[in-house]
Amino acid sequence: MDEREQFVRQAIKMTRVIRPAKQHLATFGDTDVHYFIVTDPAYTDVIPGEEESVVREGRAISRKPKIVTPEYMLNIEGFSDDAKGFMEGMVRQFGPNSPGILYQYTNESIGMDIVSGKSSVVCERIADDLDKRGEDKGVVIKGVDALWDVSLMKFVYDYTVESLSSNVTEMQAMGLFDVHPGTNIPNGAMRRIEALFQQVKGGLDPSILKKELDRWGLFEQYQDRFFALFR
């Protein structure tokens, strides 16, 4: 293990969620988490005795969870060869059409401030303010300054795992993991394709629908209907 990897592992170990979100990730919609990552500034090693903290504020936005299969994931661009090798292993282990859930996040930074007070005190202060405002999706994380984004990803990973069970249960109850008749595609994916057709009629970029059909290997089946959108 090299020095960088040790540093990352240490940052993960030191990350603490002081105030968790009061709600799980939404199963059928987007989830907007308002986060505050509080860290001891890196310069305290050079200027000891300063009781200051760095507060980074932002939003971690989880898009509506998508039902996918290992075969679908192999058709998504932008993955490294190592990542594709991992997905090929999943195809062999679970089958190409075994349904799963894909979570996609975006991070929107709001700003950074240096405030007075120890990080533990600042964390509690922000948490109390979120409680008073009743912000259910407000989160306070005590992280590591040099690797604050690792602390954020640690929170995102844990939050996703905690939400997974309820998301799966709700999707199963609606039959979204069941195979659509005459195909190897989960019902949830077919519903998403139908929704995209309607959204293209409303002005959505048709290339988004085209990519989704290609990833499922369905473009030939839907090409007449796709081209009819432009008539």
Describe this structure in words.
The protein is an alpha+beta fold. Among the domains are: about 5-60 and about 105-150, no CATH class; about 185-230, no CATH class. The chain contains eight helices and seven strands, in the order H-E-E-E-E-H-H-E-E-H-E-H-H-H-H. It has helices spanning about 5-15, 70-75, 80-95, 120-135, 150-175, 185-200, 205-215, 220-230, and strands at about 15-20, 30-40, 50-60, 65-70, 100, 105-115, 140. Strands 1-7-2-3-6 form a five-stranded mixed β-sheet, sandwiched between helices. A two-stranded antiparallel sheet has the order 4-5. Helix 1 packs across helix 5 and helix 6 (about 185-200) runs antiparallel to helix 7. It is elongated and about 65 Å long. The mean pLDDT is about 90.
Using only C-alpha atoms, the radius of gyration works out to 22 Å
Distance between the termini: 59 Å
Let me know the number of strands.
7
Structural class by sheet pairing and helices: alpha+beta
In short:
This protein is α+β, with helices and mostly antiparallel strands and 231 residues long. It is 46% helix and 20% strand. It is built from 8 helices and 7 strands.
List the helices and strands and how they pair.
Layout (H helix, E strand, L loop, with lengths): L2 H12 L1 E4 L11 E9 L12 E11 L3 E3 L1 H5 L6 H14 L5 E3 L2 E12 L2 H15 L4 E5 L5 H26 L13 H15 L4 H10 L3 H10 L3
Parallel strand pairs: 2-7
Antiparallel strand pairs: 1-7, 2-3, 3-6, 4-5
Helix pairs in contact: 1-5, 6-7
